[in-house]
Write a structure and sequence with these properties.
Shape: elongated
Distance between the termini: 54 Å
Mean pLDDT: 76
Low-confidence stretches: 239-254, 256-295, 331-337, 521-526
Number of helices: 21
Number of strands: 14
Length: 526
Amino acid sequence: MINLSVICPEMAVRVLRVEKKKEFAALYASQEIDEDSPFVFIDNGQEGCDICFNIEKVKQLHAESWLKNRVDYEVLIDGFIIKQIARLRYTVKRDTFDERFQTHIIKIKESPLYYIIYENLFSAMNEYNLCFDFPELARILELLNSAVMFSGTSRLKAFGPGFELFIPYMTALEKLIRYNYVSGEVDISFINFCLPLCLSAKRTNYVNVISASNLIEEWLFEAKSMIVRRAEKAANAGTQKINPPYSKDIKSVTDRELDEIDRNAQGLSVRSKLEDVAKEVGLQAGTGRVKHKTNDTSLFFLDTVRKYHKEISELEYVFKRAFTSMKIVDSFDGDINMNKQQAAYLASITREETKVFQYYRKKKVSVDIVILRDVSGSTHKFEKEYAEGLIEILAAVNSFKGIRTMEIDFGGEVRMNKDFDQTVEMASIFPVSGGGTSLLPAVRFLFRQTFKGKRRLLFILSDGEINDREQADWELDDFCTKNNVNAVKVALGAFANNGYEQIHVRNLHKFIAKKILEQGVTDETE
């Protein structure tokens, strides 16, 4: 049973059940609820709120889904509760209302198209935030969303043909937001336009949700003539479909592939990348190793942080010692220094305003950290350790302002999982291996990056079995010399060759501490 008081402590939530459809519809007829609604939400003001379930309908949805012979229908009830609680938890508070939000409220009442766009984006943002705050709830939402889809687009029919023609586009938008699914029933330019907006809205805040909703609505109105021609063509061919309020078994792509699209998708490449994701597994060229896939990279990240919280804390302390220092600043106010007493006495006689006090101020941190991870086939048995070590470093410096991090995977190809300007939360890191081992393309990729930090560190996580090692090492030395970068080579598995030091992931923080402290603490000025 979900502990609702922990998720939404400011609101009293009561869960009710009605066994029969007709009884449910009759009981909530005043709420414009029919027999096909799985639940109804009632806001009772100061007394809290009620969530009442239509058990017969929930059981029907369960029986029609792929969950039928795997889990009980109660998982759907839990999922619906989580969806509604997410909305309660992250609803915009009245004291944050601004002019933008007031305009948004008016538009919701006036434009049914805008309303549907906003509701989809806002709901997705709420669920994303809830799963970030309570990752243990993500599994339940995944089960619900993979088995049941609610579509609110059918209400556009009530506003006439002028709005009805947008139904396929709203259905496509719902699938894109909820399931990362690209519909073939709409023009691909719509998907290309919406994808970055949806990602931004889903992963940030309500301000971006409002902005994205406005932009998508404007696009649809400006493309209305094109949509009309496409709808006429589809109608003549008899291919236009309108999804029922609830449908089942929607296939979603992984967060890792979605992050890749977020960074690199341009034009028609969006469709090709998403179509590639539809394959359950893929083979890396050269070795025939199966590339590991996952659908919950954030959960692996959080599990690793919990597992190595002690090591991360100790490493964070090391980074703090190494990268921060105090500067003595003369001041008119603060702590008087014993050596300044005479100057203070003279100043009191001459009544001259002199800086005879001192205080300590932290110098600004300015560090760039790059991590190269070997994801070739030779690291297959220890791919988890390499992923955990990578996360351990990123988590230890995550709270430092002034420390920028970049993470790059190398093997058969170069893949940047985290840019300098990207937050750790947006990165996609999990165990992966497969393909050859070529370090040289990653080194040449580094030459094209812009480094700003006064201190620069490069960690290479590999077993040392590198095909182009000699040439890569030569160019790596050249890169480090020209860019004033200190490189640290470490192997986290059972194998370590060609100058890579073998370290257990549990001792990685000690190894890094030793290497950093050997280089000395920073003495950079502001």
